[in-house]
Amino acid sequence: MPDIKKTFSYPEIVRRMRNIAEAMIQQYGGLTNALRLTLYQKADEFNINRLDLDDILKNPLLSTIINEKDGTQFVLIPEGKFLAGESRTNEGVGKPFPVRLPAYYLALYPVTNIQFARFLNQAQPSERDLKKWIFLDSDTFVQKADNRFEACGNKDDHPAVSVTWFGAKAYAEWAGLRLPSELEWEKGARGVDGREFPWGDIWDESKCRCAMNAGTENTCSVHSYPDGRSPWGMYQMSGNIWEWCEDSFDFNVYDRYRQGVLSPPEKDDWSDGHPKDFGGMLVMCCNEGFRVLRGGSWFSDNPNFFRGAFRSYGVSKIWNSSYGFRLARTVSL
Predict the structure, then answer these.
(1) Alpha carbon distances (Å) from 273 to 198, 282, 290, 331
(2) How far is CA 151 from the centre of its chain?
(3) Residue 277's CB: how many other CB atoms inside 10 A?
(4) What is the pLDDT of residues 51-85, one digit of tens each?
(5) Is 124 buried (19+), middle (13-18) or exposed (0-12) by CB count in 10 A?
(6) Model's pTM, two decimal places?
(7) DSSP string of 172-184, one letter each residue
């Protein structure tokens, strides 16, 4: 067997080490301490500087995969703990607390207009289903032309909006994917250190699309604001659109999460048909099903809405020109 140190240049060895790291992380579903030690040993064998290996392992595109069905690009979020929640009433009422999640994939970007148009063309929904999934008006840049749907307004790569939770769910099932849980969404936005915003602890309106910088525009390209990416590399976990999560909205669920009980809510807070008193605000039941929304949007002007811990909600069948979604994928070992 040839001596790899003599056969290949140092950059080629580093590239091969990247491929090894990629394969091992994919196989084991995350970068565990034991796996990192194995990779360090392999780096020593190839005479690779461990600092170079650390740079490889920090690269957010290291564990990127693309979903063949719809082209969504995913990054592996490794198994492990992160700090969730915050001090507000529905965030666990205290300092961020540790939550351990298994490895999963989270999309780098929200689903775009061109992706949603492609989905509609393949799904060929009935008029009833179409109205249940998305509202096609002048604020929605997916339109029907003759018998086909198309992205319009030169906004192919803007996030699809006016999508209901049912529309997001239908897309995810068509693509062979799923919506993220609320905790998965939060880990994707905040990393592991409990930061306030994807980029750190200080509010900076220049790092996300919000009402303070949108001008006469609404959404922006999903590739915009790269300085606002999360620690994993996700774009626009703050701003641009509110993003649907899989979970029903339970106002007090973070109290349970703080105690280590991580099963998602089985139903929302309105399922018993009675109004709820949430911190002095009486909210009436509408019997339509409430689901979690996270992230703030182009329409928002309150920095609080853009925090990684901020929890909002919407009625499952109600659309809004600031509602969209991103996707998740389960790690298959």
Answers:
(1) 37, 13, 13, 37
(2) 22
(3) 8
(4) 777 766 665 445 678 899 999 999 888 888 999 99
(5) exposed
(6) 0.80
(7) HHHTT-BPPPHHH
